[in-house]
From TrEMBL:
UniProt keyword list: Kinase, Transferase
The species this protein was found in: Enterococcus camelliae
InterPro entries for the chain: P-loop_NTPase, Polyphosphate_phosphotransfera, PPK2-rel_1, PPK2-related
SUPFAM superfamilies: P-loop containing nucleoside triphosphate hydrolases
Keyword field contains Cell membrane: no
GO MF annotation terms: kinase activity
Coiled coil: none
Name this protein carries in UniProt: Polyphosphate kinase 2 family protein
Superkingdom of origin: Bacteria
Record-annotated Polyphosphate kinase-2-related domain positions: 28-267
Length: 291
């Protein structure tokens, strides 16, 4: 079975996050995993060259996860061979005043990659059905019609947002974009270990904040929010990939293989040159050789 099928969720209704492993044994040493990832990076570079040269299709890769699951290092390692000219990375933080003046998907569409490019979302539009479930008071600042108090926020509100997200992803697919959705599945114990390292190692202190500890207190709420979001938005056309993230090298290997498999399925190729163009090229070549 192709590795992208192993971690793929296409039927959300039966999905249970607690049943998904946060750690697996690939029976490879760390050195073997690094070597394989390097090969995958080279393969991805080849895919990107064709994608960019053709300029007809695009790729959107988004990463969602709990704090310390390794989103930043995932992007750094797996996408290290990508030509920056054909790649954009967007991190979605707390919406600005300008962004709150628009619908919740407005800022997202601004960041969708061009045809021929690979766009990476470090967190994404899914934050609007994740953090708002855990902290619904955030919605009171969005000046949404019909929502004046917390009592006005019903389950139907999230159902509508899920529908909007699915429609948006379907729209991108019809327009020639491949949407890859990765959830880096980290255990609570491993998050604790990584937080401890961030505190104990001076060079990692900058990564830790008191807000991290506060959000850790909502662990179960976030797990439930992720489960509901995946249940509502996992489809055959735009599946979720649930990646065991307790070991970073294991998760990097899996993600790099899935990305390459999905790009290979796009049947990418360099543009063909017409007979007229070839004739013009040969003429230019003859002129150059005379100089």
């Amino acid at each position: 079975m192709p590795i992208e099928k192993v971690y793929q969720v296409t039927k959300g209704k039966t999905f249970q996050l607690a049943e998904q492993p946060t750690a697996i044994d690939l029976k490879l040493s760390k050195g073997e995993m690094k070597e394989t990832i390097e090969k995958n990076i080279q393969e991805l570079q080849s895919h990107q060259e064709k994608l960019y040269a053709r300029g007809q299709k695009g790729v959107l890769i988004l990463f969602q996860a709990m704090d310390a699951a390794g989103k930043d290092s995932m992007i750094k390692h797996v996408m290290s061979g990508i030509n920056p000219q054909g790649c954009t990375v967007t991190s979605f933080k707390q919406p600005s005043t300008l962004e709150l003046d628009h619908d919740f998907m407005w800022r997202i569409h601004q960041a969708v990659p061009r045809r021929g490019d690979i766009g990476i979302f470090n967190r994404s539009y899914y934050e609007d059905v994740l953090i708002t479930r855990v902290h619904p008071e955030i919605l009171l600042n969005e000046r949404l019609p019909g929502i004046k108090t917390l009592d006005d926020i019903k389950e139907k509100f999230y159902t509508h947002r899920y529908k909007t997200i699915k429609q948006f992803e379907s729209y991108l697919t019809r327009e020639g974009f491949v949407v890859l959705k990765f959830f880096l599945h980290l255990s609570k114990e491993e998050q604790k270990n990584r937080f401890i390292r961030r505190i104990e190692l001076p060079e990692k202190n900058w990564k830790f904040s008191e807000a991290d500890m506060k959000e850790r207190g909502y662990w179960d709420d976030y797990q439930q929010a992720y489960e509901k979001a995946i249940q509502a938005t996992a489809t055959k056309a735009n599946p979720w990939y649930i990646i065991p993230a307790d070991d970073k090298w294991t998760s990097r290997l899996i993600v790099s293989q899935i990305i390459n498999q999905r790009l290979a399925d796009m049947d990418l190729a360099f543009p063909t040159v017409s007979a007229e163009k070839k004739e013009a090229l040969e003429k230019s070549l003859k002129e150059l050789t005379k100089q």
